[in-house]
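tool=predict chain=A
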Amino acid sequence: MSYYEEHEKFHVAVDSIIFGYDEGGRELKVLLLKRNFQPAMGEWSLMGGFLKDNEAIDEAAKRILNQLTGLSDVYMEQLYTFGEVDRDPGARIISVAYFALIKINASDLELVKSHGATWIPISSMPTLIFDHSAMVARALKKLQVRARTQPIGFELLPDKFTIPQLQGLYEAIYNKTIDKRNFRRKLLSMDLLEKLEEKEKESSRKGAWYYRFDPNKYEDLLKRGFNFEL
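tool=predict ok
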């Protein structure tokens, strides 16, 4: 028996705002591609696709991310549902947007390139199709909130990093300069980092100690009422 036949049917899409961090340039980047089909062929777009009959929304988002980057175990969060009537000139399409955080060097760069995708700095992002620019703006605001209240910034860095590298990441996320002493003092006081017996000496002759984020210690602290705020 068929139900709901009297109701209109719509397409459901999933769009992904994929953030990465360029350590060398100290820039937050977003993965964009040139659209190779109509409407808006040849214009810059987020990576997206349509929901399949046999998959859940979250599964679709993971599938699309994996097809583009080759990664399957990354931080991903549902952001917002965009459903303006005229948002897509091709048809009535409701889009569920997600944002993801990945380590750029961990992705399959050749696979990314084969899709026509490019890592572009947030600071020089081109105009995107439809409401995709609004999606990126909303995702960036959510990232800034999450980075302040959860240790998700570590998802954008290599497993080992220096305090200056971590500060550069947060400055890129917030788009502002952070006081070096206050940042270091507040970060180390949380006791979430494991200091390694190794230094990064490319940036200075003296070198900076490498650290590693300890997720197990973080989970243990959460159980005891710890609040992350950076």
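The two ends are 55 Å apart (CA to CA). The domain at 11-150 is CATH 3.90.79.10 (Nucleoside Triphosphate Pyrophosphohydrolase).
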